[in-house]
Amino acid sequence: MYNTINLDKLKEECGVIGIYGPGEQQLSRMAYFGLHALQHRGQESAGIAVNQGGQITYYKEMGLVQEVFSDDIIERLQGDIAVGHVRYSTTGESYVINAQPLVVRYKGGSIALAHNGNLINAGEIRDELEDQGVIFQTSIDSEVIANLIARYNAFGIEKAIQKTMGQIRGSYALVISYGDKLIGVRDPNGLRPLCIGKIDGGYVLSSESCAFNVLGAEFIRDVAAGEMVIIEGGQIRSIQYSNEQKKALCSFEFVYFARPDSVLDGQSVYISRRNAGKMLAKEHPAEADLVIAVPDSGTVAAIGYAEESKIPFGEGLIKNRYVGRTFIQPDQKMRELSVRLKLNVLKENIKGKRIVLIDDSIVRGTTSGRIVEMLKAAGAAEVHLRVCSPPVKFSCYFGIDTPTRKNLVGATHSIEEIRKMVGADSLGYLSIEGLLESIHESGEGLCSACFSGDYPMEVPKSGNKYLFEKR
């Protein structure tokens, strides 16, 4: 389970990393550190698979990276290619059998596959394969990808992957180890991020560039939408397997998911969040004495809001960084206690002041109400809540765990109703146009479906976001 304070946030599905480093003695340790840098993308399970001459060994378990791997385990994982994964489940239940990387042995050899994203036609493909006698070991859509690749093994790994990509629909950033190759694949719309870095004697593929800083890797470029990159023999090749015209990188990566020190498709996450704060100050000014953030995801936008509004930025909420994961509490009193365990009000800065409180998003509204209540109990004269994203009104089908629409407060309540619900003196959301412009001046090439309902592809009409969740 997760920190109660995070129940009012959308959850990313996972983070992937792949390292190609023949002769590197510390390859699995490098993958371990890379996963540490991507831990924010998934805290449910972690795994590393290493490839030595086509022979793959792996270890994966439930928990955080540092909980899963010991020095002894890392030392046992020796190879020339490593694939790593951290997971938050959207398809499949939270069991170790669903942890990744998936390691599949078939007639053509062995592959290790790590997947970030969600397939919207996985259910129908899985049904077809099961009708043909294929046996599935997990309840995750990533196994559909692995089985399709195995099915086409006679064509060779590269053609097998291309044929598989021709059948699946949805979002995916894949890192695959096979033989002496490390392969990265990004979906035709570029919904999920994937980038390439260079290290001494090898390469790194990662969901985010922040992992390169840890590994001492040099950022080369992002994998393009609809591109497959093949790393072998110390060289990197590219195959553009799809020319889908509608680029649609997830805008919520910039709002919340990605680390602020990452760069996605050429856009700095830090700069985009600061721009969002500035835009928010223009769209929803407030007369106040202090700008504070809900740490840590609202901090950069709060700095931007303060710069634009000329209202001083300061600390008002102190985050306990050592709480770790806490169980969801069964009653209201315990839930409120859990919020206070995670966040504490700095009363000396708050008392008697008119506060602008900056948060990145509101999903259910429950946590926002508790924070506003805490600030007012500490003596804040006014609390003006500002949200640096639009109201979340629609479910995501592409690897973000959004509640159903009936549980999305932005879909069921007006802004004034939400303001009353959370107890703020005023409430303002950044517009969709403001958000997209804060990320990219033209606002092009981004998916904002969770705000607008304008999906980059046709989505299931059944209302099921993840077609074999808890299958």
From TrEMBL:
Signal peptide: none
The organism's place on the tree of life at top rank: Bacteria
InterPro entries (UniProt xref): GATase_2_dom (IPR017932), Ntn_hydrolases_N (IPR029055), PRTase-like (IPR029057), PRTase_dom (IPR000836), PurF (IPR005854), PurF_N (IPR035584)
GO molecular function, one term: magnesium ion binding
Protein's pathway: Purine metabolism; IMP biosynthesis via de novo pathway; N(1)-(5-phospho-D-ribosyl)glycinamide from 5-phospho-alpha-D-ribose 1-diphosphate: step 1/2
Residues the record lists as binding Mg(2+): S297, D359, D360
GO BP terms, alphabetized: 'de novo' IMP biosynthetic process; purine nucleobase biosynthetic process
Task of the protein: Catalyzes the formation of phosphoribosylamine from phosphoribosylpyrophosphate (PRPP) and glutamine.
Descriptive protein name: Amidophosphoribosyltransferase
